[in-house]
Amino acid sequence: MPFDEILRKIFREETGDQTAVLPSFRDVERVAEHVAALANSRGGYLFFEPPLSPEDTHELETLLEEVEKALEPPLAPLLMYFTDRERQRAVFLVPESMDKPHLVSGKLLIWRGGEPQPMNRSELEGLLLGSSRRESYDSLLRPDVPLDALDSALIKLFAERTGSAPLWLGQVLEEYGLMVSGKLTNAGVILFAREPEAFVYGTEIEVTVFKDLEKQEIDVSYSIKGPVLKKIEILEDTVSTYLSKIIGQEEINCFRAALREIIVNAVSHRDYGFPAPTMVRLSPESLEIWNPGKLCGGLTPQDLEKLHAPYHRNPLLARILRRMEMVKYPGAGTNFILKSADECGLPRPTFTEVQGGFLLTLELFAGGLPEVEVNERQRLLLEYLRLHREITRKEYQEMVRVSERTARHDLEELVSRGLLKKSGKGKNTRYVLP
């Protein structure tokens, strides 16, 4: 089920006791109290009743920043949009915080009875006792997940690749902290469950391919589900196949190792405590990968352009990926990505924090088409070749509906000006971008 549809269902049904709908998003104090109370308990969804106008998007971004600052210690929920009955709406996704308790204006609140309530002494003592050990989300135990939910073939493959010789497959999981006293951790579920989405909500990767990003014209949209190791392979193949049509096979072969680094970073550094998927958007203009959760360890997007400490939000997950030799540049992965872009003749990716998450953007044609004098037919051809790699004279003639003489003249003019390259002879002649 697409995540937009999931949010729509939760909003309409107000499913679960960890869901609230506020009549307005303009009361910062009230919104902050709801976010703190949810974060201090089990997390949840905070919807806003009124449909959005185009001007509201900026106000919501500002609200997100103000709410983050209003909480002590700061915490940023995820801001997401969805469509309900052809109207755009907004929701804050609030995780169960690993840094609780959070205060708002000196008040300690907890979610009780479907609303924020003052925290009593026993609740505070229980919360502080549970927070005495700062465990990562991927290390939390999941006694509700049965061992038969795991993909035993995938565990066996991992054991073979890492040179393990266990007496039974559970020994592999225990060795790497993926199972403790017969109970799986979140990392074990994310890595090896056949359907981790059934137990760790939002672990799917939502892929959207746009015909036109600016006009939001979608070609296809789908979810990638399953164990994270398989997700990495599927997403890498999906993105590299698409990009090869845009930037060329030679360029994507050059950038392939950096692309894998981008994807591995996406699945290993995201905050799985947020019930939201990783979002991948592909278009002729750009590749965008958005992850739930901002940078950890006090890092800023600017820090990623230089060597930095290798902070791990999900240490168990990172350890497995290192053993599988998928993490090769701890603390230097983003430097490798930027260097690879330079060497492969691609624009450098940019890193930003937006809507409570982290966004990587790779502009595919940052400069657009060459600013040269061409007729409308020729410009249409250049746009076409950004997607389709090559064209014959006959195909061009049929596309723009002109005579053979005019088509040949258009093509040869572009070749003479260096805007096209010509290969082959006779009927095998092809025209491509240089």
Radius of gyration: 25 Å
User: How far is the N terminus from the C terminus?
Assistant: 42 Å
| CATH architecture assignment of the largest domain | 2-Layer Sandwich
CATH topology of the largest domain: Heat Shock Protein 90
Largest sheet: 6 strands, mixed
What fraction strand?
Answer: 15-25%
Q: What's the CATH first level of the largest domain?
A: Alpha Beta
Helix-strand makeup class: alpha+beta
Tally of separate domains: 4
What portion of residues is helical? 25-40%
Taking pLDDT < 50 over at least 5 consecutive residues as the criterion, the unreliable ranges are: 366-370
What is the approximate shape?
A: globular
Kindly state the number of beta strands: 20
Strand arrangement in the largest pleated sheet: 13-12-14-15-17-16
Number of helices: 14
Mean pLDDT: 86
Describe the protein's architecture and organization.
The chain has 434 residues and is α+β, with helices and mostly antiparallel strands. It is 38% helix and 21% strand. It contains 14 helices and 20 strands. The chain has helices at 3-13, 28-39, 56-70, 121-130, 152-161, 169-175, 186-192, 228-247, 249-269, 315-323, 333-343, 376-388, 393-400, 404-416; strands spanning 19-22, 44-48, 71-72, 78-84, 87-94, 103-104, 107-112, 115-118, 141-142, 179-180, 183-185, 205-212, 217-224, 278-282, 286-292, 350-354, 357-363, 390-391, 421-423, 430-432. Helix 9 (249-269) packs antiparallel against helix 11. The longest helix is centred in the middle third of the chain and has 21 residues, at 249-269.
